[in-house]
Fold these 2 entries.
Entry 1:
Amino acid sequence: MILKRIAPHPLPTNDYICTVGTTPANGYLGVLGGTTGNKIGNTTTNWHNFCSTVETNESTLMTDGAFGLDQTVWFHFKSPATGGNRNIEIRALNDPNNVGDQIDLQMLLLQGNPTCPFSASTTFTSLTPIESADNVLTFNSTINVCLPQNTDFYVLVDGSGLNKQGYFTIEVENMALLEVLQMTIFVLPKP
Ligand SMILES: [Ca+2]
Ligand SMILES: [Ca+2]
């Protein structure tokens, strides 16, 4: 019998929320540009959540949608510096580059910054849940949401019970300036 040694997976760099911060290698995607169509992240960097864990009290964030947390990893980005509210789309794709391990993606978007270094009692309390996504018909996951300018956001990425761990990509796109409907009402005096 011939035994072949396989290369072990490196552990994810963004398992713990306080390791993300502003380091691209740990999941910091950057500041989104102010022009419609601007993107951060990409569909070529293959992230994964092998052997990632759930931190103490992380599940208290699940007030929207409330999917169960299995093996979470974290991303951080900032909305455009100026320009007011924007429609922003966050897309996580299940192994689009066929690295070879699928994941049924779930996402949670939070506003604010964690309180670091990690503390079970305070780290997650400074974050506000905004929106969750657990698409039923696809292993991909998408969030469409209107976000304020110049604000920090964190994205939790997890797998579902169908497939908890695997490879994925993540991308954030500026979809459009939110149009404000202006209406002028004339009140005419009674004749
Ligand atoms: Ca984690
Ligand atoms: Ca899950």
Entry 2:
Amino acid sequence: MLDKARRDHSSVSNIHFIQSTFEDLFSHFPSQYNQVDVIYSNAALQWTSGANHALLLPRYIKELLKPDGTFAMQIPDTKDQPSHKAMRVAAQVLGLVELDSVRQARSELTSTCYRRLLRAHCSSLNMWNTIYCHELMDSDGGKEENPVANFFAGSGLGAYLEALADDVQKKETYTREYRRLVAEAYPKEAEDNATLLFMKRFFLVATK
Ligand SMILES: C[S@@+](CC[C@H](N)C(=O)[O-])C[C@H]1O[C@@H](n2cnc3c(N)ncnc32)[C@H](O)[C@@H]1O
């Protein structure tokens, strides 16, 4: 991603690319920028816990933003979504206790929590949820296609499969059960075989 950004924006002179975790951003922040106008994060901060949001977000605003600067983020809010419930249910059905502690990458704090954390540091704070409807089509129109399970195979499901480490048998059994539950939760539209995936996202825009 950084390589592509470097290539695409090579003509811009005052641009710096840094690679950092959210947690280490303070020490990697380019020294020539004391503070910045905008901090923007799309679909990434869900990978760190709500406890870390409570530590980091007030500091981003206080320490890294100019007066009047804006912090904006979007994160998935999927805890009540059938696709994500199925990850937990499949583990329970199969008695895979090693999956009990897997953290789903998603919004953990409520809007009320964010308000309590941030309001003292902001002149304005806007938060909202949007539910997107993704219309997923089977790649080959076959009855066995499971586009919702495919959609999360490379993201949400990854943490569960990683926790099963090298146990190929368990991974296969777990994946099969997950796909079965998801297919049940997301029936296809009779007319055109489309599968509708409703995806809730949380947005927060805080101006200092
Ligand atoms: C779904 S991608 C979103 C990428 C990009 N923002 C976009 O909108 O296309 C999630 C990104 O979060 C990054 N990520 C995960 N944990 C992180 C952490 N602790 N600190 C910083 N980035 C992290 C991953 O490396 C990945 O690039």
